[in-house]
C-alpha cells in the first residue's frame, strides 16, 4: 500500500507498480544517499559504501521473499526494485559497464545480509504490512537494539 503523502513529499521516494497495479513506494535513506545523488557521482570510498548498502537494502526484500516466502514473491516487484537500484547506480557512473559491475558486486552481498538480519527484516516486513508506511523513528524502534550489519 502506498502512502501518497510520502511519495509526494519525499523527493527521493520512487513510486512503481506491483503485479496488481497498485502503487508501491520505496523509502531510500535520503539523508545518506541524497547528497551523493545531488552530486551526481560517488567521490569517496564512503560514497561507494553508502550506495552499495542502498543496493543491498533494496534487493534484500525480493531476495528474502523469493527464498523464505515464495508464495508472496512477485517477479514484477523484484524487477521494479532492481530497476530502481540500477537507475540510482547508473546516474552515479559515467560508464554503463562500470555501473553494471558496481551493481552486481553490491548485489552479491544480499544473501549474507538477509541471513544475518533475517529476524529484523521479518519484524520490519510484518510492521510494514500492518501499517503501510514506517517513518524513521518507527523503524528505529523496531530495530532497536539490533544494529543491522551491512
Question: Which short descriptors sum up this protein?
Answer:
150 residues; mainly alpha; two-stranded antiparallel sheet; 8 helices; 65% helix
Protein model, in words:
This protein is mainly α and 150 residues long. Helices cover 65% and strands 5% of the residues. The protein has 8 helices and 2 strands. Strand 1 (14-17) and strand 2 form a beta hairpin. Helix 3 (45-68) crosses helix 5, helix 3 crosses helix 6 and helix 4 packs across helix 5. The longest helix has 24 residues, at 45-68.
Question: Can I get a quick summary?
Answer:
The protein is mainly alpha-helical and 150 residues long.
Could you outline the blueprint of secondary structure elements for this entry?
Elements: H1 4-9, E1 14-17, E2 23-26, H2 30-39, H3 45-68, H4 75-91, H5 96-107, H6 110-116, H7 118-131, H8 136-143
Helix pairs in contact: 3-4, 3-5, 3-6, 4-5
Overall domain count: 1
Helix content: 55-70%
Q: In angstroms, what is the radius of gyration?
A: 15 Å
Overall pLDDT:
79
Helix count?
Answer: 8
> Secondary-structure element sequence?
HEEHHHHHHH
- Given helix and strand content, the structural type is mainly alpha
Low-confidence stretches: 16-23
The counted number of beta strands is 2
Strand fraction band? 5-15%
Strand order of the largest sheet: 1-2
Amino acid at each position: 500500500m502506498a502512502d501518497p503523502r510520502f511519495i509526494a513529499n519525499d523527493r527521493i521516494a520512487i513510486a512503481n507498480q506491483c503485479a496488481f497495479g497498485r502503487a508501491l513506494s520505496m523509502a531510500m535513506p535520503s539523508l545518506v544517499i541524497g547528497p551523493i545523488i545531488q552530486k551526481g557521482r560517488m567521490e569517496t570510498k564512503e560514497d561507494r559504501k553508502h550506495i552499495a548498502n542502498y543496493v543491498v537494502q533494496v534487493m534484500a526484500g525480493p531476495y528474502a521473499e523469493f527464498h523464505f516466502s515464495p508464495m508472496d514473491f512477485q517477479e514484477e516487484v523484484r524487477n521494479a526494485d532492481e530497476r530502481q537500484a540500477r537507475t540510482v547506480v547508473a546516474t552515479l557512473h559515467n560508464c554503463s559497464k562500470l555501473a553494471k559491475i558496481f551493481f552486481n558486486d553490491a548485489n552479491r552481498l544480499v544473501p549474507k545480509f538477509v541471513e544475518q538480519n533475517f529476524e529484523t527484516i521479518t519484524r520490519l516486513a510484518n510492521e510494514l504490512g500492518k501499517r503501510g508506511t514506517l517513518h524513521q523513528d518507527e523503524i528505529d524502534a523496531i530495530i532497536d537494539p539490533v544494529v543491522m550489519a551491512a
